[in-house]
Design a protein that fits this description.
single chain, alpha+beta, Immunoglobulin-like, Glycosyltransferase, 2 domains, four-stranded antiparallel β-sheet, four-stranded mixed β-sheet, 16 helices, 21 strands, disordered N terminus, SbsA_Ig, signal, Glycoamylase-like_cons_dom
Length: 556
Amino acid sequence: MINTKSTLVFAVALLFFACGKSSKSNPDPVKPTPSSFTFSSVKVNGKSQGFTYTDVSTKPAISISFSEPLNRSLAGGSVAITDAAGAAAAFTVAFQHNDSTLVITPNGLQNISRYTVNVSTALKSAKSGSLQSAVQIKLTTSIDSTPKFPLVSDTELLDLVEKQTFRYFYDFGHPTSGLARERNSSGDVVTSGGSGFGIMAIIAGINRGYITHADGLARLQKIVGFLNTKAQKFHGALPHWLNGTTGAVVPFSAQDNGADLVETSYLMQGLITARQYFNDASQAETQLRADINALWNGVEWDWFRQNNQNVLYWHWSPDQNWAINMKISGWNEALITYVLGASSTTHGIPKSVYDQGWAANGGIKNGKTFYNVTLPLGPDRGGPLFFAHYSFLGINPNGLSDAYANYETQNKAHALINYNYCVTNPLGNGGYSADCWGLTASDIQGGYTASSPTNDVGVIAPTAAIASLPYTPAQSMAALRFFYYTLGDKLWGEYGFHDAFNLTDPWFADSYLAIDQGPIVVMIENYRSGLLWNLFMSAPEIKTGMKSLGFSSPNL
């Protein structure tokens, strides 16, 4: 008889054994983890120099090599090219070296622009491995030397620049006061010093036929009427900024909420020039001269000696008095302040104030040589170029000398040192050359600074080289051509050249500043005809005042 219980146990055991044997001899396959891969090298147009490239063409070949062949289908989606504003640029991709090199070619970048090429870790190898670290490459594209505008003669180009820049002061002048807006975005804020430059620009515009004599006269009547009836004044001096509608002070800083004697000097320089220009016997021009004299004679230059010291002070506040306590002492942009102070027939200053306060009894002398050019006055390497411009829009430096310097020599030396510094380019700034130079006060990206050979942040201001035309005509004309023809698509606009630019970290200002546009117009005109120099130096008070300070010149 068969024992069914034993048979059942045996069958179960046999089944268990069979299952156990099967599971041990045929395990489930384990999928291997794809190995990661790495970046190997990068070349841009065949050159390898790390991750930053300058002077790059607008359609560069960007070759990035990796340790493994790539998955072609995922490559394009792992790459992005963006400009400085974050906008995407189109590109194509190709493969080399058995698909281990990715070649990225932009469809066409903009010249003088900064781009970033990013390759993300979404990039996969052909074996589905992951890129260990993202890759980032910085590109700065090259200058396009193709002329952006039709070529014209230098005379025509000077006229074009003078006329277009003149429009800042005439077309864009404040509608109520006629004064010059501080900058193109300042609304009602007008500038006293920049308005002085603008008055001289308007006279140049009349003389060149950009506007009629009648229109120019009407604009001066508006300006002078506003200054006499609405503008806040402090012992006859104007503030740095004021409201072009109401005439109220717009504080330049917390303590600078009253008189600015240097800015007032620039305004008076322009007004005296206008008085000499509008010289006929008509009732309108006779009244204009009288109204200008009221402003000019009202400035209490001697009061700004602060209790009869032998120096002039720059600021005075109606609620903080002499809190800033800044002496006007040279060498800087304020020679005109002492010349006007000495020339005043109502509130004049003696020569001792000039000698001790401005010239520091000869302490303004330099005498050192920089780039084989001897600099008579001022800080080493000359300082910002506006030192050679603002006071000399009206004061003619040609043949002018006193106990401290020959001012024709001084200004030519200053401009040449600035030029030679940029050509030498010790900091390696992008674009600096014999055609691209000029360091002075201007906007910079995110701010404002007084650029010079000892404060070089890589920013060139067109006004620096162009307003130096009387001193360095060949070098300045070369720069003007470069600004217009080569950079004109980025730099030239409604009111002439924009304020400044940087070719190292490409940036172009969209601003216009009155104190930078004014010297462009005035110094082009002085270079062409000497008009503004002749008018200002013809004023009898100026002749007497400058002689009293010891100046000599064929123009006195």
